[in-house]
Amino acid sequence: MASFLRSSAPRSIAQQASRFAAVQQPLAARTRAAPFLFRRGLASASVPEQPRLRLGSVAPNFKASTTQGDIDFHQWIADSWAILFSHPADFTPVCTTELGAFAKLKDEFEKRGVKMIGLSANDIGSHGKWIEDINEISNTNLSFPIIGDADRNVAFLYDMITQDDLENAGRATAFTIRSVFIIDPSKKIRLTMMYPASTGRNSAEVLRVIDSLQTGDQKGVTTPIDWQVGDDVIVPPTVSTEDAKKKFGKDNVREVKPYLRYTTI
Ligand code: BEZ
């Protein structure tokens, strides 16, 4: 399916959104009608069942087509960390800049053992054309897969749809499907972020969180506000000061308050 944003003269966001609704395919069979849709007289609209996505819960598995072939998501992650980030449609301007930035950071993600995968609610033929634009605009060579989610099955499975999109089912806006998930090698969700269409994501923050999570897992510490690699870290409340001194060195625990102890690693 060709992207609705590419095909002709520039459109307003509202025009793009209504065209986006028009090209959406029917939702999958495994659906239930949302109660508020009945109340609003939109009972024919429905949303798929979705598991609760909590930090620490297993990221739902799915099979999908991507720009690099078909995948089983868990098998694709294998023993790596993974970042899944999503987009409502190809050829959207903010998303174009985001994918270019992530593509440029390939080495940084690889260094941390993190596989990257994008998702956009168009088909993979359209993604291929969008990738050409992204590479041209950002002077990069995007080399991670992008999931074709034209029927928005994965977007619903991961609860990436915004409230106004659900409530306007059948007249859906495109201001939706802009999530970030960090998933660890045991397939647990370690971070979720959901961005509005108006605000480009912060790739440095994604890397910073990965650094914090991996440092925490390896060293048994937590990290304070705005922490960067090399800064002091925090001894978690579950570790006594005595044990912290044994672990990090007797002169390497700085107690600001009994509940706030810094150390270096
Ligand atoms: C974007 O600029 O990426 C965008 C525009 C409209 C809807 C969603 C995203």
List keywords for this structure.
Thioredoxin domain-containing protein; binds benzoic acid; 19% strand; Thioredoxin-like_sf; 3-stranded antiparallel sheet; alpha+beta; 34% helix; 265 residues; single chain; PRX_1cys; redox-active center; peroxidase; disordered N terminus
Describe the structure.
The protein has helices spanning 13-23, 35-39, 73-77, 93-104, 106-111, 124-138, 153-157, 163-167, 203-219, 241-248; strands at residues 31-32, 47-48, 63-66, 69-72, 81-87, 114-120, 146-148, 179-183, 189-194, 233-234, 253-257, 260-263. The chain has 265 residues and is of the alpha+beta class. The strands form 4 sheets. The chain has a 5-stranded mixed sheet with strand order 7-6-5-8-9. Strands 10-12-11 form a 3-stranded antiparallel sheet, with helices on one face. The termini are far apart. 32% of the residues are buried. The model is unreliable at 1-45 (pLDDT under 50). It binds benzoic acid. The site of benzoic acid has 9 residues, from helix 4. Residues 53-215 form the Thioredoxin domain. Thiol-specific peroxidase that catalyzes the reduction of hydrogen peroxide and organic hydroperoxides to water and alcohols, respectively. Keywords: Antioxidant, Oxidoreductase, Peroxidase, Redox-active center.
